[in-house]
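> forwarded from #structure-qc
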């Protein structure tokens, strides 16, 4: 009888502990607030100050930090694989067509150098990607997001996966919703994340099919004329500075003007406009257009979820000495 009671108690304890055990063995649970409190106490302050300094010199860096987070985290893991340059058999994710228009990677090196001076080989490039995005969002008038740290860096790039995992500029809304759902972000969170387009700009290469030979009838006519002034030819040079902003009114502020524009048929990309017309997403668009606080709340939640997508932790990956190269390749490039 005692043996059976003991067995029953052990089983009960096991099932009570099972959720904790599952959490412990997932990478997400290994992330924690203030991960560098002992190993590099000034780490988060250094990143914040560097982001501020860079923003004051090059305002568009803040937008780059936000885009970096999305491109890095949605491709398998938040592990700074995006930052790897071509070396030692690695093909850079930056070479993908999905990375068209991305820039300012060199300033990640500026942040890393400041951290290396304070705490050599301690702070991961993956955490730089996450925390620079957090500080960039603040510089762009968005909410301050509490973010966990402790990510480690990938030793490899996922170039062959980029096209499969990152939606392109004119994929359907269903494709976009599916991509984010695979990282644990629900429809409401996806609508909020796309609010980052509030500070986005799109090259005319990705817009002209909505303007020529005739303007897409789903576009507000006045907005269509604005876009044609920004993109005056149906065959723009990809290397030329020809682009339009999603939110001409507050182009460098993450706010709910993006959603107000959508309700006025001023969505820059097809997926933007579909947000306002699709029954799955339209109620959230209307609610965010009416309430900037609600938008910021949902945006914070979604960015937090994205930043914790399948991170490398503990003894996985490495802490890169140089964000551009896996440690095994640093000797080959210096």
């Amino acid at each position: 009888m005692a043996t059976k009671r003991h067995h029953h108690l052990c089983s009960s304890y096991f099932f009570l502990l099972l959720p904790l055990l599952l959490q412990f063995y997932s990478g997400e649970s290994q992330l924690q607030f203030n991960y560098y409190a002992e190993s590099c106490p000034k780490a988060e302050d250094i990143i914040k100050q560097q982001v501020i300094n860079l923003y004051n010199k090059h305002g568009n860096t803040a937008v780059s930090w936000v885009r970096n987070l999305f491109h890095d985290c949605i491709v398998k893991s938040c592990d700074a694989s995006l930052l790897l340059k071509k070396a030692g058999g690695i093909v850079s994710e930056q070479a993908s067509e999905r990375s068209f228009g991305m820039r300012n990677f060199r300033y990640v090196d500026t942040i890393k150098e400041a951290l290396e001076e304070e705490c050599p080989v301690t702070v991961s490039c993956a955490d730089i990607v996450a925390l620079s995005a957090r500080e960039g969002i603040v510089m762009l008038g968005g909410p301050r997001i509490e973010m966990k740290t402790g990510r480690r860096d990938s030793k490899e790039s996922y170039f062959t996966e980029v096209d499969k995992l990152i939606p392109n500029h004119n994929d359907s809304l269903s494709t976009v919703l599916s991509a984010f759902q695979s990282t644990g972000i629900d429809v409401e969170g996806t609508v909020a994340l796309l609010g980052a387009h509030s500070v986005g700009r799109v090259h005319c290469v990705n817009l002209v099919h909505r303007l020529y030979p005739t303007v897409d009838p789903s576009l507000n006519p006045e907005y269509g004329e604005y876009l044609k002034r920004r993109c005056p030819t149906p065959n723009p040079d990809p290397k030329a500075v020809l682009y339009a902003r999603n939110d001409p009114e507050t182009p460098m502020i993450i706010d709910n003007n993006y959603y107000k524009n959508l309700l006025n048929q001023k969505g820059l990309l097809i997926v933007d406009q579909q947000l306002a017309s699709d029954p799955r997403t339209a109620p959230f668009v209307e609610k965010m257009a009416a309430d900037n606080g609600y938008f910021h709340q949902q945006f914070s939640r979604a960015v937090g979820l994205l930043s914790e997508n399948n991170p490398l932790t503990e003894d996985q990956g490495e802490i890169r000495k140089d964000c551009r190269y896996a440690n095994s390749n640093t000797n080959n490039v210096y």
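QC bot note: The domain at 166-306 is CATH 1.10.420.10 (Peroxidase; domain 2). The chain is about 50% helix and 0% strand.
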